Amino acid sequence: MLESRMLLRIIGFLSPAAFFWSANVEGKTLKLTGRVIAADGNPVAGDLQVVTGPPSVRARSFWTDSQGRFSINVEAEPRLLVVAKAAGYISAEREIASAGQELSLDFVLQPAGQVSGRVVDDNGRQVAGALVRVHYPGEFRRLVFDQEAGNVRSDDLGYFTVPAVAQGRPFVLAASGEDRLPGFTAPLTLTGVAMQGVLVTLSRAGQRVRIKVVDWAGAPVPEATLRLQASGESEPYTAEQRQTRTVFEAANRLARTGVDGSVEFRGVPAGTVTVAAGRPGGRLVKQEALLERARTLELTFRVP
Predict the structure, then answer these.
(1) Is 248 helix (H, G, I), strand (E, B) or coil?
(2) Which of 160, 184, 202 is the last residue of a domain?
(3) Are residues 105 and 121 in the same domain?
């Protein structure tokens, strides 16, 4: 069976269970056999990617035969992530414990279609450059491929197209803009190869946090590291929305100060904000403050 080695292009792990440590089990090998089929039961020719890591995420890629069958030997690890993927379908994954010498796995792939629409603000005006992602309620993938997550930007008129969305499975679209808080659609279901006219509204402006970092003499500190974490408890997100990558990135920021020792974070959710600042490699100084809605929070840090 044809094999290739590659590095995965991913946007990240979405479940703490994914953070297993890669350590070869005494040089043993594991035989994986099985088949990849479509939701209608027809065989699908594609490839399997056997993933190890982090800290270094790597994959070995194996092709199935024309009937979607595979029989491969891989190095045994305490935990492995096996992902089946094929053109025109949404990938499926299985996390396995390689306790034995042989394991049978079957994968069912759902067909993909595209979803297009527009991002607007609360007044119906287009939002250019908004980042649009797709989320599946109740589903937590260990590994997310960039092309399946959306990760597309709206154009100058606010229009976007997400190229790979699962057919027949409820999903929501989430969008975020530089000054706007994330917005979500209601649950949608793609029943064919395409869906058009989806509207994602960014109805709330985010808050701003301005930070100045100086030394004990009051001189600005350029290239200082800043980490911001916003609880967002004052924003009306559901528990599931708070677990999405879209809300996580709005509430967790990392930056370095400019030559004037300052940084401005925009589009921050209201609520308790914790900020840590320090020189590269130095001790971090922390502050906690309440970021009120429609207000700008200004903080000054003195670092050694």
Answers:
(1) helix
(2) 202
(3) no
Say if residues 81 and 107 touch (Cβ distance below 8 Å): no
Residues 6+ apart with CB under 8 A from 204: 122, 180, 181, 183, 235
Nearest to 84, CA basis, from 57, 111, 55, 50: 50
9 and 96: one domain? yes
Range of the domain at 136: 111-202
Distance of CA 127 to the CA centre of its chain: 21
What value, to the nearest 5°, has the Cα angle with vertex 116 and ends 110 and 122? Answer: 125
Q: Residue 136: give its domain's CATH number.
A: 2.60.40.1120
65 alpha-carbon distance from chain centroid: 31
Q: Is 92:107 a contact under the CB 8 Å cutoff? A: yes
Do 227 and 242 lie in a common domain?
yes
**Structure-block tokens of residue 197:** 């006219």
Q: Are residues 80 and 168 in the same domain?
A: no
| CA gyration radius, the chain | 23
30 shares a domain with 83: yes
**Would you state the pLDDT for residue 167?**
97
The CA distance from 35 to 15, in Å, is 26
Residue for token digits 């005494």? 26
- Residue bearing tokens 């030559």: 259
Please indicate, yes or no, whether residues 45 and 143 belong to a single structural domain of this protein.
no
What pLDDT is stored for residue 101 in this prediction?
80
**Average confidence (pLDDT) per 10 residues, the chain, 304 residues:** 40 40 59 95 95 75 96 86 95 83 92 98 96 94 88 97 96 96 98 97 96 96 97 95 95 97 97 96 94 96 94
Q: Residue type for 261, please?
A: G
Q: Which of 64, 79, 110 is the last residue of a domain?
A: 110
d(C-alpha 203, C-alpha 183), whole Å: 7
User: CB neighbours of 16 closer than 8 A, spacing ≥ 6?
Assistant: none
β-strand pairing of 194-202 with 102-121: parallel
Domain count of the chain?
3
